[in-house]
Design goal:
This protein is α+β, with helices and mostly antiparallel strands. It is built from 5 helices and 14 strands. It is globular and about 60 Å long.
């Protein structure tokens, strides 16, 4: 049975994705058992031609899934629905986890101009419920930016699974043009975002990439997350993986200070050409 996506606006999350966090961020001390990890079979790398990718992953389930996800994110894992994963490629360490240090972020002149250009957008953190309006925007985005990519064949069910099947504190952040004539504004960008103990993790964002009158929307969505996280007292915004030499990933180095995860933990990115290395392997993980 094909799911019909809602045409209604998802409910606003009253607790707030960007609510102020008081005091220090607690260490993860939840009494969950060390999870079982699995490794995928090698497959063609989507970022570096001629390379093979492999992932190590574990399931996120049960009452301690949010705490486990927080802990794994600190050692380079990302979430996809009910799974946490990170690259574990033989002989390659190109994928590097990166996060923005929000208290110290200062937008440069180009970024300040972009913020002013899109400051009329209305930002709402909504419960993770897939709508047809979001899905149609995603289809436009994929057609403009990633035609023929791995997500190009997503249907309504796939999109609903991506958004709604989350065992952690997830929301859809919507960016809309100003409302008028009794109607809500047009949706021009959205981001599936996880709120973690130490920051926001941007799982997947998409926007109206095919419109010339709204340039730089993707960069604006990132900056909006950074500024709102800082206002809420959250020290980091997790941007996923950066791959040196991949044009698709180059934008992530525009947000400074940026931290990268290496074998000795997180450190500031100073020189993009400096070797970083693989994070410490999990027990039993082949390297």
């Amino acid at each position: 049975m094909v799911k019909t996506l809602s045409t209604q606006r998802p409910a606003i999350h009253k607790a707030g994705l960007f609510r102020k966090t008081e005091g220090k961020h607690p260490a993860v001390t939840a009494p969950f058992r060390f999870p079982r990890f699995f490794v995928t079979s090698p497959s063609p790398c989507p970022y570096l031609p001629g390379k093979q990718e492999r992932k190590v992953f574990t399931e996120l389930n049960g009452v301690h899934a949010p705490e486990l996800n927080d802990a794994l994110s600190r050692i380079g894992f990302r979430r996809s629905q009910g799974v946490a994963y990170r690259p574990s490629c033989a002989g390659c360490t190109a994928c590097v986890s990166v996060r923005v240090v929000t208290p110290e972020f200062q937008p440069n002149a180009t970024q300040r101009k972009l913020i002013r250009r899109h400051q009329d957008l209305q930002v709402t953190a909504c419960r993770p419920w897939a709508t047809d309006e979001q899905f149609q925007l995603l289809r436009r985005y994929l057609a403009a930016r990633h035609p023929g990519g791995g997500m190009a064949g997503m249907d309504e069910d796939d999109y609903a699974d991506m958004v709604e099947h989350s065992p952690v504190n997830s929301l859809i952040v919507e960016f809309r043009e100003p409302a008028g004539h009794g109607r809500r504004g047009r949706l021009v960008a959205a981001c599936l975002t996880d709120r973690q103990a130490d920051g926001l993790s941007m799982i997947y964002s998409f926007f109206a990439a095919d419109e010339g009158d709204r340039p730089g929307l993707g960069n604006y969505v990132i900056m909006d997350h950074i500024l709102r996280a800082r206002e809420a007292g959250l020290p980091y915004v997790y941007l996923g993986y950066w791959v040196k030499g991949s044009a698709r990933m180059a934008y992530k180095t525009r947000y400074r200070p940026l931290e990268v995860l290496g074998p000795n933990g997180w450190r500031r990115m100073v020189d993009e050409d400096a070797p970083i290395g693989r994070p410490r392997p999990l027990p039993g993980e082949a390297v």
